[in-house]
């Protein structure tokens, strides 16, 4: 589906957003009806105003307590529950951001309909005056792309299909795409991508997209594990159910690429997107616990858990990207359960050694309402990723600081990049929330878009 605003129309019905405690608008006339309906302007509460002739003349919409505004910034997404009609915001209460509300409306309209037919027509919003409607629609469309990619099951979104979608996206924005697949990975010295994906029927591959030919360079690396059984260290069924989302890093990278290109943020910059697309399967030729792999940059890695495969495929892709010495490298990956334990599903941790870059990203996350939280590359934990018989361990024993040790592992392969940022995302909304229906979700892309002018001037 395509997120769009309705054209201006004289038939658009007014909706009045109200904070709890605000006076009812005089335009509705008799206030007895909202009172009788129990309308208190609680978050997401809707009260339809009748026109006296069996129709609707408008609606009141509750924003909740002003003190909870930062907690529920996208509350206006609940307005998508209004009846199917064209609506326009009738008034802007103090502290109400019309651009934010417009984006919330579009994000709240998302439905994944690939296997259930087209969604029924819902309410549409006239873009509020003074907002950049075209830009908001492009941001929402990029987020919809990310959600669609994650929500598509692995039988229809394996490495080949992910490559095809990546090519389609790249073609649509004028970017170029090259792909290394199967045995070519070994010949091109990307052995860890090959090792992780070689047991699957669908060949492992590296998708390499380039946009722009001048300016500072941003390299984005997205984890594309299209399904993760855990390999020979097989996951229990309870942990395997959501593993179609293990390519969420790649989905977010592609959504970010589309967002940067179509909003104009890519102009004057070189953008490179690297996606190692694999399926971590089980077969006689699967890589094994105890194997020692040699990465593209020459570092050896002892495999102590085949279910810690994401950092292996990212490592080779990052080492390749770092050879060009980009001004900024960003990795996006559904990498560790430890990040979810620490911060829950809504707040991905990010890691960055450069203070200016980290501050810009934190501020971008806040301004875009796309939450991130900085975590440390803690030097004292370096020893935890250094086993006895190889340079690195892909799965340190003990289980402590799992997100930090994964970030430290990846940083070893970013050497050459001027600055490096790692986002350990979840990519999934476990329960519906304002602007985020249950299912695949974008995390970090809007924050990066907002921060890019300061991160990569």
CATH level-two architecture of the largest domain = 3-Layer(aba) Sandwich
| Global outline | elongated
CATH class of the largest domain: Alpha Beta
- On the 0 to 100 scale, the average pLDDT is 95
Strand count, sense and barrel status of the largest sheet are: 9 strands, mixed
Q: How many beta-strand runs? A: 19
What share of residues are in beta strands?
A: 15-25%
Keywords: Aminopeptidase, Hydrolase, Manganese, Protease
Family: Belongs to the peptidase M17 family.
GO cellular component, one term: cytoplasm
GO molecular function, one term: metalloaminopeptidase activity
In short:
It comes from Paracoccus seriniphilus. This protein is an alpha/beta fold and 457 residues long.
Topology diagram in text:
Elements: E1 13-19, H1 32-36, E2 46-50, E3 56-64, E4 86-89, H2 98-108, E5 124-125, H3 133-151, H4 159-172, E6 176-181, H5 184-187, H6 191-197, E7 205-211, E8 217-222, E9 224-228, H7 237-240, H8 248-262, E10 270-280, E11 292-294, E12 300-302, H9 310-322, E13 328-333, H10 337-343, E14 349-352, H11 355-367, E15 373-375, E16 392-393, H12 402-411, E17 420-424, E18 428-429, E19 439-440, H13 445-455
Parallel strand pairs: 1-3, 1-4, 4-5, 8-10, 8-13, 9-10, 12-16, 13-17, 14-15
Antiparallel strand pairs: 2-3, 6-7, 7-10, 11-12, 14-17, 18-19
Family: Belongs to the peptidase M17 family.
Protein name: Leucyl aminopeptidase
Pfam family, one: Peptidase_M17
């Amino acid at each position: 589906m395509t997120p769009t605003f309705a054209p201006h129309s004289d038939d658009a019905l007014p909706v009045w957003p109200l904070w709890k405690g605000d006076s009812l608008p005089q335009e509705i006339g008799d206030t007895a009806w909202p009172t009788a309906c129990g309308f208190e302007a609680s978050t997401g509460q809707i009260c339809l105003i009748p026109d006296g002739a069996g129709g609707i003349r408008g609606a009141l919409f509750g924003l909740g307590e002003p003190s909870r505004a930062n907690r529920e910034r996208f509350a206006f997404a609940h307005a998508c529950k209004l009846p199917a009609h064209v609506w326009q915001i009738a008034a802007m209460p103090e502290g109400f951001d019309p651009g934010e509300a417009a984006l919330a409306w579009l994000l709240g309209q998302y439905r994944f309909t690939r296997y259930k037919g087209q969604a029924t027509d819902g309410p549409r919003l006239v873009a509020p005056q003074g907002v950049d409607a075209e830009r908001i629609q492009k941001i929402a469309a990029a987020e919809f792309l990310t959600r669609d990619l994650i929500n598509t099951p692995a039988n229809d979104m394996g490495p080949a299909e992910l490559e095809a979608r990546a090519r389609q996206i790249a073609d649509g924005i004028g970017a170029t795409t090259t792909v290394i697949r199967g045995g070519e990975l070994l010949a091109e010295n990307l052995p860890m991508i090959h090792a992780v994906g070689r047991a699957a029927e669908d060949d492992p591959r590296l998708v390499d997209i380039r946009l722009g030919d001048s300016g500072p360079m941003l390299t984005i690396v997205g984890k594309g594990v299209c399904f993760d059984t855990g390999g020979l260290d097989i996951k229990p069924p309870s942990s395997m159910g959501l593993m179609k989302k293990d390519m969420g890093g790649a989905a977010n990278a592609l959504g970010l690429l589309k967002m940067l290109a179509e909003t104009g943020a890519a102009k004057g910059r070189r953008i490179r997107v690297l996606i190692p697309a694999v399926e971590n399967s089980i077969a006689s030729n699967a890589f094994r616990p105890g194997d020692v792999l040699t990465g593209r940059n020459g570092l050896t890695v002892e495999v102590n858990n085949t279910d810690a495969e994401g950092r292996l495929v990212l490592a080779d892709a990052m080492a390749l990207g770092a050879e060009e010495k980009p001004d900024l490298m960003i990795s996006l990956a559904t990498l560790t359960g430890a990040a979810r334990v620490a911060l829950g599903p809504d707040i991905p941790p990010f890691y960055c050694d450069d203070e200016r870059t980290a501050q810009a990203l934190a501020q971008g996350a806040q301004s875009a309402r796309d939450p991130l939280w900085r975590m440390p590359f803690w030097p004292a934990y370096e020893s935890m990723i250094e086993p006895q018989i190889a340079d690195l361990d892909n799965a340190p024993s003990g289980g402590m600081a799992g997100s930090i040790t994964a970030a430290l592992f990846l940083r070893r392969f970013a050497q050459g990049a001027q600055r490096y940022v790692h986002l350990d995302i979840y990519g999934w909304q476990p329960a519906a929330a304002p602007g985020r229906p249950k299912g695949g979700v974008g995390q970090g892309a809007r924050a990066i878009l907002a921060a890019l002018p300061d991160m990569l001037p």
